[in-house]
Amino acid sequence: xxxxxxxxxxxxxxxxxQNLPAGYEQLVKDENAKVIEWRRYYHQxxxxxxxxxxxxxxxxxxxxxxxxxxxxxxxxxxxGVLKGGKPGPVVALRADIDGLPVTERNxxxxxxxxxxxxxxxxxxxMHACGHDSHIxxxxxxxxxxxxxxxxxxxxxxxxFQPAEEGPPGTEEGGAPLMIKQGALxxxxxxxxxxIHIQASLDPGKIYYKPEAFMxxxxxxxIKVKGRQTHGASPWLGVDPIVxxxxxxxxxxxxxxxxSQITQAPVILTVGKIQSGVRPNIIPEEAVMEGTxxxxxxxxxxxxxxxxxxxxxxxxxxxxxxxxxxxxxxxLVTYNDPKLVAQSLPSLQKAAGDxxxxxxxxxxxxxxxxxxxxxxxxxxxxxxxxxxxxxxxNAPGHHTPDFVIDDSKLDVGxxxxxQLVFDYAKSx
Length: 427
Fold this sequence. Notes:
By secondary structure, this protein is α/β, with parallel strands linked by helices. Helices cover 32% and strands 27% of the residues.
């Protein structure tokens, strides 16, 4: 049975949300038009992972206008540091800044027409996952907090992170490189918060879950080596395509028959298979690639071992060999239960009564998960469904039709600011 924070505990901490300095509400209200303008600018001019040079340059220039110290990091990322006028902890707020190799189909005045090179091909580039809104909300919080600097407790670290969608090829990037280069060490961060926009959920509402919230993401490659022969004489060779087919079918039994899915979900997807050059030649090799999603660390390790054992055993039974490589892209995004409990009143104050919703876990993945290895972390969703759609038919993230209602981004700004003040009060 998965553990949830008891409601009695939530009510017991409800009084911990603080009233922010006089004029705060008006500051956020005045900021919203600017936040929307920023979001639409970054939407129109997206850049791919580890190539967000103009994005970072504009972010850094904007932060400097607010009087916030900045430094470049992770190639095309930015860290801003605001030292408040009162003593207190160090709180980090994170936004990811990269776009995706997706060609936009929306008829927006600020539609992206950007192109770039990806895997040797010319592709369209689009903020098809809401990172443009993440940038805008964090910039909005940075400006509001800078205007209240004398009242800000402790230090706020603004993390504008590149390559959340994954660095290209063998390059380093994303949250692991941010951490490696000291994003959470200078100054040393006590807690990390992040918001992700969700195009299918109710606008202005916040959705959260303690403990496991988003899945780990592993990418695997299975190379099956057979023996090439003429398609008219299959008995003279070993067909790696037939072997691969058997592996694909049997891999699904790891989910349906071997994983305790009452403990946590498991998803195993083969998304790509390559083999052969002619219809009348049985090739020597077949290569399949896929992804593994788990929401429990021990189950993640168990699935890895089962894939390796199954692929190699099936291949051997057919007289072939199989080589398995598994690359962990993200960890389980784990929300520290204590931090969630003490932060909920802040979310409720920022979003309003009834607008903070206990959510189910999600098989999507986020490299925000790595920050949780360095400090207690809390990651949650902000709904932004366009009024033309229902929850069921809203265009999905990572698609050409992805669209959001950006009128409620002020809720994200307010939430970030409220968390900064309230976390300090809890220490």
